[in-house]
Amino acid sequence: MRQELGYKEKSGQFTKFGQWYADRVQDTQYRDAPWCDMFIAWAADKAGISQYVGEFAWTPSHAAWFIQQGAWTQKPEPGALVFFDWRGGKSYKGIDHVGIVERVSGSKIHTIEANVDRIHLKRKTRETDKVVGYGIPRLVKAEADRPDEIRSTEWPFVPAPRSEPGHGSPLDFLGTPPALLTAMVLMTVVLSFRISGRRRGTHRRLSWLPWNAPTRPRTPSGNDRAAARGRPSPSANTRAKPRATPPPSVNAQAKSPATPPPSARPARTRVPAGSATAATRRPTPTRRKPYEPG
């Protein structure tokens, strides 16, 4: 870089640094453009440190790049890039010029700058009142080397490998966050319907839910039919033993000749099982003993 001190641009503002940058970006307009930053890009490429210095032709973009890299400071040091705003502004958007700090002397900096005094590459001594900030290439290098030092245990988690499109199973969707969210929303809606039905005093049964499926009707047993007729249920333990009926006396038969035999009595009407209303309206007559007078 120092070997290029004293270089002067050619007619039409043409420079070899502009030509190099135009070939680099495949744009011919840079051959005769302001070349202070293109000279720095050329020098960094020759030194093999372009990834730490940057390759720019527009100084505000170059300063913004250092800011994004976390390599922007207000303290000068040798090897730093110094950015100027001739109007005295302190925003990177107003930067007009860039140079390289060669050394620092008190409140002044000694620089190597291109395109100064309109056409030259030369050394300059500058006050710092027009300086916006400094880009530090060594900080860019330190930040670039930092990911290699991070241990695997410091990563929050290891992402699961993703299957290639078209090779996954449709069931893989069930374990995804959208599927879980959908299930939670459905459960919330179902519970809200059940709670709202209880508050109104009516419980709405959703037939499409598995726990609300209709149950099969229970077949009435002999105990149920007996209860509907108003009789005690016939059980093996509670069944009454028939008592021996004494033979009727001769006088009783003589006194009641008109009593019809038990077989001549009218048959009772059978009440269908489960008809509790009919059983209450037509109670069953009490059986009369055969030896009692009519």
Structure description:
By secondary structure, this protein is of the alpha+beta class. It is 30% helix and 13% strand. A hairpin with a 2-residue loop joins strand 3 and strand 4. Helix 1 packs across helix 2. It starts with 15 loop residues before the first helix and ends in a 13-residue tail after the last helix. About 4% of the residues have low confidence.
Oligomer: single chain
- Uncertain runs are 151-158, 275-279
Question: Mind telling me the C-alpha Rg?
Answer: 54 Å
Beta-strand level of the residues, as a percent range? 5-15%
Report, as a whole number of angstroms, the end-to-end distance.
Answer: 145 Å
Based on DSSP secondary structure assignment, what is the total number of beta strands? 6
Give, in order, the helices and strands. HHHHEEEEEEHHHHH
Output the keywords:
rod-shaped; 13% strand; 30% helix; 294 residues; 6-stranded antiparallel beta sheet; 9 helices; alpha+beta
